[in-house]
Amino acid sequence: MTEVLGTEILRAVERFLKTSREPVLCEPGEEWLAITPDNFALEARGACVQLQAWDRRRNLVRRVTAIQREMRGKLVLQVARFGKLQGGALELIDRSRAVRDNMPLRSARLGFREQFRRFLRRQFPAYKLAELTTEADLEHTLSPAYPRALLRQGGSAWAAIGAAADAGNPDGVLTFGLIWLDYLRQREPSLALQGLVLYLPAGRAKTTCLRLLFLDPAAAQYRAFVYDDDGLEEPVDLNDYGNLDTHLDPYRRRTLQPARLETPDVETVDRNDGELSFRVHGLEFARTAGSELLAGLPRKRAAELSRLRRPDAPDRRNSLYRRNPEAWLESQVRRHIQEIDASLLAAPVYGQVPAFAAADRGVLDLLAVDHRGRLAVIELKASEDVHLPLQALDYWMRVQWHVERREFQAKGYFPGRELLPEPPRLLLVSPALDFHPSNERVLRYFSPRIPVERVGVGLQWRKELKVMYRSGTP
Q1: Once rounded to an integer, what is the mean pLDDT over residues 435-443?
Q2: Which of 223, 342, 382, 436 is most buried, judging by how many CB atoms fall within 10 Å of its CB?
Q3: Phi-psi category of residue 266: left, alpha or beta, with phi > 0 → left and psi -120 to 50 → alpha
Q4: Taking the mean position of all CA atoms in its chain, how far away is CA 322?
Q5: Confidence grade of residue 138 (pLDDT, cut at 50, 70, 90)
Q6: pLDDT at residue 250 above 80?
């Protein structure tokens, strides 16, 4: 039954693409991503379909759980986020019909802007609403998906931003809120901007409120409100959001020997469930299940993968070469982790620990340890992503949670090594030219107890992993 559901979703997407002249993928708050046969992949996985699309600047991976609406020129997909069935929406749009479809979108945004205006007047009656807009400002990375405002009272002021209940990604509001706050501080140097006000939909505010707990209270103050279906709001006590939804599975060590693989350039990666993953430059083509070998690709296709997915591949437009660049970057970092930081041990290096829907974020996570026993969270992104700092924070806070409870050693990770109770380091690794310009602005607001570094690698990282610069607190 689950395979049937996944197949139905797959067929609906393929049917839409076949009838579209200019298909694009649209996620609220983000730019459209044009779809071609060379930058789009679908794979049925039980009741879901894994969707992946990429271009020069970003790689987007989502797990599609249902078709919300199917209509002429538009297909609305329900996607899961952070390991939960409930999530956001993703739209496939035929751009040739986009003018017609943009009208209801603009009307909805204007309607929510007026709701946001009423909220600000109710909660801040002593302040003047000096500015309220939903206009895009690409130069300063300000999204039209979230209305933003400036509240003034004499020489004091607050920045404010809201997330609509029907927004596909309300978790993105804090990224753009911090950018808005930082922009206003630069634009209005005479104003004492106290901090940021956030207007969030009830039931979808947890991720944002958790993130606020890990920002620097000396850099800015934060006030959050949640609103119900009637638009009535109430203030949030951030202390109510202190418990993380996270778990750490025991690490299982493999005892059975798998069948031999004689494919060139194969990497063998230990999975946390005790199985082995066989990959070519990060792209998995087979894995073990007990004593059996489960091949996702026939052996001949695996050999073809090895030929097409290599740094000097003759056809760099081939989909196998371009697919999942984060996985390729992960492969390079695993193999040359001491190039990233000489203090890190070459092994063991774990992926996606604790269990977290890293693929849904388009970011891959590694967990390593240095020679002193301090953990390091390594977040990998092969293309520009405005949300990278806060997505990395989501993962760091979960690792920190388990560090505080000394669970890693208790569950079999890093055997034979005494782990320090210090907060783990956070390393953001990306091609040097592909860090989003706003990443540094967002990182200014992180708590000083989070030792975060940006590590920029060279443009030819597929061929040679070479660090070009470091920025942050070692």
Answers
A1: 94
A2: 382
A3: beta
A4: 19
A5: confident
A6: yes
Q: Which CATH number fits domain 124-241: 3.40.1350, 3.30.70, 3.30.310, 2.40.50?
A: 3.40.1350
**130, 151 contact by CB (below 8 A):** yes
Mean pLDDT computed over 299-319: 81
Asked whether the beta carbons of 59 and 52 are under 8 A apart, the reply is: yes
If one compares 128 and 247, the residue with the highest pLDDT of the two is 128
CA distance 167 to 201: 9
Closest-CA residue to 131 (of 148, 145, 116): 148
For 168-217, write each residue's pLDDT tens digit. 678 999 999 999 999 999 999 999 999 999 999 998 999 999 999 999 99
269: number of Cβ within 10 Å: 17
User: What's the pLDDT tens digit per position in 31-51?
Assistant: 678 898 888 989 888 888 988
The residue-averaged pLDDT of 213-229 equals 96
Whether the per-residue pLDDT at 424 is higher than 80: the answer is yes
